[in-house]
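ok so i was messing around last nite and threw this chain in just to see what happens. nothing serious, just curious
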Amino acid sequence: MRVGFVGAGLMGAPMVGRLIEAGHDVTVSSRDPARLADSGWRVVGSPEEAADGAEVVCSIVPDSPEVAAVVEAVLKTAAAGTVIVEMSTISPATARELASRCASGGVDYLDCPVSGGPVGAEAGTLAIWVGGDAGAMERARPVLEVLGQADRIRHCGAVGAGLAVKLANNFLGAVNAAASAEALALAREAGADPALVVEAVNDGTGANWQLANLYPRKVLRGDFGPGFRITHMAKDLRIAAEVAAEYGLELPELELARARLDEAIARFGDDRDYGAVARLVGW
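result:
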């Protein structure tokens, strides 16, 4: 397929590599094309150039303002029937507004947030949660199945539903990361080997993904270099809190997780993995 791709960062770059390897005809939009001069990719300087002639346009950028700018640019050149696969995490309400804007030009908009980090992007094992028209999803499936694991690609409902799943996922991920740090600190101070605790608890009822993966792979090794940046997790929790407020929900666990991430950012900097929340209790 002819694919336009906007955003070749920690997540986007390995996705582009996989799409090209799979035989797709990919044009990459970069704000700084010179940065990718040695990549061997077809690189252009704007989303509208990347979208010109594309059947599917993928985008993964930081936040709602960037997504809105990408969509406006893409609509300048995208033909009717083009599918926008928006993998950024933004609010469901913003996604619905952008989908309506796209529909007026005959373009399908899918919110397709992903989970699995750079490791999953490189391996093509991402979970992808899709909100939008099921027919448009099927047209984009040859691209989605290169980026994600087939049995982890789910149609979640109308536009915004994929983002609702992603916000729930990251809410739980942040809580698990912070709670696991405190639980391991408690066991450490009481004389248990944290590595053994991880192994034991993952056979018990306290098992969670962060304890089984994030902690042995990064935190217990003192590696807080960015995989999924703590600022991105904090942004996702901010969006979740905005959605909760929209529906009148009081979510104290969400607010506690936000406070812990904000404290970690203030103390240890913003260019860290979200596992850096563990440093608050001595990791």
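not much to say yet. The CA atoms of residues 186 and 192 lie 9 Å apart.
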